[in-house]
Structure formats: structure tokens, C-alpha cells
Amino acid sequence: MPIPDALLTRLRLPVIAAPMFLVSGPDLVVEVCRSGVIGAFPALNQRSSEGFSAWLEEISGRLADIGDAAAPFAVNLIVHRSNPRLAADLDIVARHKVPLVITSLGAVRDVVDTVHAYGGFAFHDVINIRHAEKAAQAGVDGIIAVSAGAGGHAGATNPFALLSEIRSFFSGTLVLSGSLATGRDIAAARVMGADLAYMGTRFIATSESMAPAAYKNMIVASSSADILYTPAISGVNANFLRPSIVAAGLDPDHLPAHAELDLNHEARAWKAIWSAGQGVGAVTDVPPAAALCERLAHEYRDAMAAAGSDRFQAQLTSCDRSVHA
Fold first, then answer.
1. Angstrom distance (rounded) from CA 137 to CA 107
2. Which fold has domain 5-210?
3. Coil, helix or strand for 74?
4. What is the 8-class DSSP label of residue 46?
């Protein structure tokens, strides 16, 4: 199925501002939702389930004044055996009827069924075809294809290959993640066949993100050459900023091996060593989230209009007429 109407009709842009560990919070979620973009945050960005519930109440309350004029928001749940809060946080999600739940590190039918039971939608992020097949079997409504170059825990597959292979067996909502930083990138993702674009790094460098000022400044100052793809920070392959690794007193080219992923230690690993995607070179400022969304909307419209009037498209149409003459 395409994007569910309950989500589509409330979007100004076909974009999810990705849930980023230690970065996404209520201020960022509220501002992007008010701008017609799906805002998301990880449940684990709050230190307790009680705090997580309080954030949900805060976000819902701050968006209540504009009702359906706001885009829906999403929560990211880590479905991994080392996450001791999963059951409690899922119960809170159901109690608050969170519109969209994005699961990571495990596609589980019981989680999907719980979200569907109250009328919510369940998306799952994947880095390869095997994970995508498992997500489809679990009954998810959407699959987020985390391709090469994405920030955070990312895959190594080219987005063209990943999108087309997933679409060959999955008819639900397809979301593309990986180096998307401009409105033109959003348009490119749509032309490639994605229903939505998944943007993270670009939203780190906004006024409302919880990232430290030094992190935001490093994003602005960096390019794709500053991104290192390694499992050595958290035990799972992810993209990190080389300058932050150096600042932490480590040699990016000789990192010690990391044990298996353990969410109990993730916050310590990511607090000083910062993640970003290869699209970081397109980030040149730290605007308010609303201003960024406005900019992205204009860039997206211009790119889609340009694609529709492209001279090669006109030439193709002319050739097609000649063939059928």
C-alpha cells in the first residue's frame, strides 16, 4: 500500500525527521510537526519510562492547538534483547496511541500487533534485504531502507539496489535513508521510488536539537571525507565524525575492537563520539527547524518542477510521439 492516508494528508513534505539518539527531543519534534514533517524521537532519549511518558504528554499537548494541521509524530523503539525497557515503553506507546512507531534492531510480530491494535502504524528500519524480508513477514506498514552513507547505524548497500530489491517483494510504504540533506535530495528519493525521505544529519544542526553546540558546529565544518564507518564504537556498524573520535583521544584508523552491542552502554559511547551521515557536506548552517523545513519545501518544489520540465523528458516525449506516429 502507499503512504497511509492518516499520515499523508497531514504532511507538507514527504519527510521523516529521523529519531536520533541523544539528539531528538520534544522541541525538535514539535517544531517539525508544526511545519508538516513527521517528527520522531527515540524512547531511550529519556532516561526512564516515566520520563518517556511525560515527553509524549508534552508533545501531544504542545501540538493540540493546531490539531490535524500538524504532521503526526513517531517514536523509535529499540527491539533488542539488551533493551530492558521495551515492554514498559511499548505499553506506554499503546496507552498514548502514538501515531507511528519505528522499530530498530529487531522486527517482532508482537510489537507490530500491539501498535496495530490501537490503530497506529509500524515502520521498521533495515540495512539489508534479509532484514527487510523479516520486517515484511512481521507485518510492518513501512520499511525504512537505511542505505550506504546514512548517519547512525547504517548499511553498506547502494540506495538504488536496496530500494528496488525491497520493492520487488514489499508493497507497503518505502522510506529511504542515506545522505539526504536538501530538498533536491528529497525529490531524488521520490523519483527513485521511495514514498518518504528519512533525514537525520540535517536536523542535528538545528536550533531545537539537543546536540551540544560543538556537535552542531562540527557538522557544519565537516564533509563526507570526515565520516568513518565502523563497528568499533558501539559494536554495530555506524557512521561517525572522525574529528569527534580524535577529540575523544582515539585514533580513527586504529580503533580497539568493541564487544557486542549493549544498550546499557550506548549513551556513554555516543555522548562524546558523534554520528553523522555522508550528506554532512551539504549542511552549512544551524537554522531553526521551522526555517529549515520551509527551505526544504521550496527546494523540493523547485526540484520536482525542474524534473517535470527537464529537456530530456521533453525529448523523450517527442521521440515517443515519433514512434507512435
1. 9
2. TIM Barrel (3.20.20)
3. strand
4. S
Q: Where are the domains of the chain?
A: 5-210, 214-272
| Cell output for 77 | 523503539
Other CB atoms within 10 Å distance of the CB of residue 206: 25
Which residues neighbour 297 within 8 Å (Cβ) at sequence distance 6 or greater? Answer: 12, 13, 36, 183
* pTM of structure: 0.92
- Here the cell at position 216 is 552542531
Cell triple for residue 81?
534483547
What one-character-per-residue DSSP string does 102-169 give? Answer: EEES---HHHHHHHHHTT-EEEEEESSHHHHHHHHHTT-SEEEEE-TT-SEE---S-HHHHHHHHHTT
Contact of 128 with 158, CB cutoff 8 Å: no
How does DSSP assign 213-263, residue by residue?
HHHHHHHHH--GGGEEEESTTTSS-EEEEHHHHHHTT--TTSPPP--S--T
Helices (H) and strands (E) in the chain, counts: 14, 11
Amino acid at 52: F
39-90 per-position pLDDT tens digit: 999 999 999 999 999 999 999 999 999 998 999 999 999 998 888 999 999 9
Gap between the Cα atoms of 275 and 20, Å rounded: 9
Give the cell for residue 36.
Answer: 508538516
Between strands 100-104 and 142-146, the pairing is unpaired
